[in-house]
TrEMBL record:
Coiled coil feature spans: none
Keywords: Oxidoreductase
Gene3D superfamilies: Dihydrodipicolinate Reductase, domain 2, NAD(P)-binding Rossmann-like Domain
Family classification: Belongs to the Gfo/Idh/MocA family.
Short name of one Pfam family: GFO_IDH_MocA
Organism: Collimonas pratensis
Domain Gfo/Idh/MocA-like oxidoreductase N-terminal positions: 11-131
Name of the protein in its database record: Oxidoreductase, NAD-binding Rossmann fold family protein
Transmembrane spans: none
Occurrences of domain GFO/IDH/MocA-like oxidoreductase (ranges): 140-264
Length: 345
């Protein structure tokens, strides 16, 4: 914790959504983030509220979001709800005078992104951050710093992938109707990284393609389980993206940044830890199973950065405009996938 934040009051937080990721954020907020405490939780599901009460002893539980917002003394909300709910829930929180952390993506709809930005502009004293967690990973931060220091000359190309382990249950398939498809759900992280690492260039044209390697049932949502894309920016900068739901070995997220004087690579070996196994199959590492194990520390750093920004009244580097731009590019990728044509931005 920053020493000057010792005197700022402890931030009282309410969490909304206690699903796959919401539970992780709730655990962090309850016991691992200095300067914040989890005072309330909201979910429409009784079983999730019971979990919050029994596992974390969250003192105040709400089935209704408006009731949580009315909780006396609440400073900030964490929205870890289905993406389709994000814009309206952010706007409601701002109107109730709360700081907002909301999971990515901001929205699947550009008009909604702009409505959120307009509402946030009416409350300049409130912080709003969208959870692009990779920016808070130590290796990505190191890469960013080295690029700023000129370590690879002028960066002109990013390759970035988000590849999930194959899930034989096809659990994610039922979310495909609301997730916006593979590019808005997964590549949105890579899009944000590419913009950040290349110095926020303007996108000018995208082209995307994809295939259903395993999950044929994605056809009903016009989605793919493996997608690739190229994004051209102005000034000759380029990004290429790959997203997959079908990796055999585990969660394999990596990024490569090429510059005029060198190349940086983050995460090229997605090993679980430093253990190397040598046996009749050869010499190998095990792989991280999911995004959570890979970014566990980053999730904590992300929350801590948000909480400190509020307590120290510091401006957040990651803005709503960044989140809108990631959605804008993600929508263009989806359009290109469906039309099989390049899309101009
Ligand atoms: P989930 O479906 O497991 O959880 C959604 C939660 O929202 C559930 O607890 C559900 O009860 C609750 N909910 C639904 N309707 C609600 C309402 N009207 N009011 C309050 N709560 C409501 O989904 P998951 O995987 O946890 O994803 C949530 C968000 O987190 C999504 O936007 C997703 O894109 C994002 N996410 C981000 C990741 C990252 O790497 N940063 C990784 C995984 C998810």
């Amino acid at each position: 914790m920053n020493p000057s934040s010792h005197h700022a009051p402890i931030l009282k937080v309410g969490i909304v959504g206690l699903g796959r990721l919401g539970r992780r954020h709730a655990e962090n907020l309850m016991s691992r983030v200095a300067g914040a405490t989890l005072v309330a939780a909201c979910s429409p599901l009784q079983s999730e509220l019971e979990w919050a009460r029994d596992t974390l002893q969250v003192p105040h539980l709400y089935e209704d979001y408006a009731a949580l917002l009315a909780h006396d003394g609440l400073d900030a909300v964490f929205l870890v709800t289905p993406t389709s709910l994000h814009p309206q829930q952010i706007i409601q929180a701002l109107q109730a005078g709360k700081h907002v952390f909301c999971e990515k993506p901001l929205s699947l709809d550009l008009e909604d992104c702009r409505r959120v930005e307009a509402e946030a502009a009416r409350h300049p004293q409130l912080q709003v951050m969208i959870g692009f967690v990779r920016r808070f990973d130590a290796s990505y931060q190191d890469a960013y710093k080295k690029i700023q220091q000129g370590a690879i000359g002028s960066p002109f190309m990013v390759y970035s992938q988000t590849c999930d382990q194959y899930d034989p249950d096809g659990f994610f398939v039922k979310f495909a109707a609301t997730s916006g498809g593979i590019f808005l759900d997964c590549s949105v992280h890579d899009i944000d990284l590419a913009r950040w690492l290349l110095g926020n260039p303007q996108p000018v044209r995208v082209y995307a393609s994809g295939t259903r390697a395993i999950h044929q049932d994605l056809q009903q949502f016009q989605d793919v389980d493996n997608g690739v894309a190229i994004c051209e920016f102005d000034n000759g900068k380029l990004a290429t993206f790959y997203a997959s739901r079908t990796m055999a070995h585990g969660h394999d997220t990596m990024t490569e940044i090429t510059g005029t004087a060198g190349r940086l690579t983050v995460g090229s070996n997605p090993r679980k830890n430093r253990l190397e196994i040598a046996d009749a199959h050869g010499v190998r590492n095990e792989c991280v199973p999911s995004f959570f194990e890979r970014f566990e520390d980053a999730f904590l750093t992300e929350i801590t950065s948000f909480v400190e920004a509020i307590r120290l009244r510091r401006k957040l580097e990651l803005t709503l405009a960044d989140a809108t731009e990631a959605t804008r590019i993600g929508i263009a990728l989806r359009e290109s996938l469906l039309s099989k044509q390049p899309v101009l931005l």
